[in-house]
Write a structure and sequence with these properties.
CATH topology: GIY-YIG endonuclease
Shape: globular
CATH superfamily: GIY-YIG endonuclease
Radius of gyration: 12 Å
Number of domains: 1
Distance between the termini: 22 Å
Low-confidence stretches: none
Number of strands: 3
CATH architecture: 3-Layer(aba) Sandwich
Largest sheet: 3 strands, antiparallel
Strand order of the largest sheet: 2-1-3
CATH class: Alpha Beta
C-alpha cells in the first residue's frame, strides 16, 4: 500500500511557506535540504518541515495540496501552530 504526503515547509517562523505533495517524504526532504532542485525552495531557502499529512490515495493528497494552496496565510499558520506551535523542523531523520 502506498502512502502519500502533503507537507508544508517554512524558512523560519511565520516566514515564507511552501506546500507540496510526494510519495517519498524522506527523499523529497533530502532534495529540499540539499537545495538540489532549482526553484522556489532553493531561491527562498524554505527547508524546514513544519507540517505534514498522510494519505493512502494520490488523488486525495493532490486535492488537499490544492485546497491548502488556496487557503489564506492566516489559515495556514493556524494549521501549522495547532500541531507544531514552536515551528520546529519535524524532519526526524
Amino acid at each position: 500500500m502506498s502512502v502519500y504526503f502533503v507537507y508544508m515547509l517554512a524558512g523560519r517562523r511565520n516566514g515564507t511557506l511552501y506546500i507540496g505533495v510526494t510519495s517519498d517524504l524522506v527523499r523529497r526532504m533530502g532534495e529540499h535540504k540539499a537545495l538540489a532542485v532549482p526553484g522556489f525552495t532553493r531561491k527562498y531557502r524554505v527547508i524546514d518541515l513544519v507540517y505534514f499529512e498522510t494519505y493512502s490515495e494520490i488523488n486525495e493528497a493532490i486535492a488537499r495540496e490544492k485546497q491548502l494552496k488556496g487557503w489564506n496565510r492566516a489559515w495556514k499558520i493556524k494549521l501549522i501552530e495547532a500541531g507544531n506551535p514552536g515551528w520546529n523542523d519535524l524532519e526526524p531523520w
